[in-house]
Amino acid sequence: xxxxxxxxxxxxxxxxxxxxxxxxxxxxxxxxxxxxxxxxxxxxxxxxxxxxxxxxxxxxxxxxxxxxxxxxxxxxxxxxxxxxxxxxxxxxxxxxxxxxxxxxxxxxxxxxxxxxxxxxxxxxxxxxxxxxxx
Amino acid sequence: xxxxxxxxxxxxxxxxxxxxxxxxxxxxxxxxxxxxxxxxxxxxxxxxxxxxxxxxxxxxxxxxxxxxxxxxxxxxxxxxxxxxxxxxxxxxxxxxxxxxxxxxxxxxxxxxxxxxxxxxxxxxxxxxxxxxxx
DNA sequence: CTTGACTCTGGACCTGGGTCCATACTGCAG
DNA sequence: CTGCAGTATGGACCCAGGTCCAGAGTCAAG
Lengths: 134, 134
What we know:
Two copies of one chain form a homodimer.
Chain A: H1 6-13, H2 17-25, E1 33-34, E2 40-41, H3 44-58, H4 63-75, H5 78-112, H6 123-129
The structure holds a DNA duplex (30 and 30 nucleotides).
């Protein structure tokens, strides 16, 4: 069984050493054991767990969410895992919708702006100063 | 001419008093004048400016961006205003694309998860623990 | 004049997710 | 054995955009 120091672990997972310690403070990842000296030692399980954390973050989960997912995956509670994923999906769809709204407003303003001439004729400035509705 | 105290100004713009003072510290909005006592007094121009700030924030501009827009609007530089708006649009489109990517990954996983049964058969957990690609 | 609401200042604190630092100790190669 | 890279700890600091607080002063209605 491979056993890794914090530096190797961090490198393999593509994160910083401080990040690993931060996750530990945050209750997400503990070393398998410690040497007499206090040096942290990690095994395969910890490396997998760290990969899990990274992947989940890449999917838009917060560390808080991930703490929950890790607990669930230990409970092997598939139904709840699916529910959590579904509510995260809803969350992400709402964020997209909000950005779409903003995108559309900006797009309209830009399309209507000639890009030269008097400030009074710039719909972007007018919208921002409240002369017209966005 | 109406002249407003900080409380009235904040109320009319729908922000907190502390926010107004924060914007002042941040160089976005100064009172038109001050009383002998030091009390801030705002006129119509400041109210409009505060509305501008809020609208711009709602369109996804940072306070930093807004400082720039305010400077431009004072210079009446329409071409540059349009360019700033365009680059903000690109920025927002990138954020949307990133979220779309996440949404799609999550959607695929959820669709493939039966919602019951063994943890080994849950694609969400498998994806997170690295048994399969997302 | 009193009272209560409002405002002043400077600074601390908050969220999330880290990152950096000083100082001291440890592990390993040569 | 020496030297240097790696690691330990606790705490400060970073970003943005506020929010809250204490203690003191002020304004306006009654």
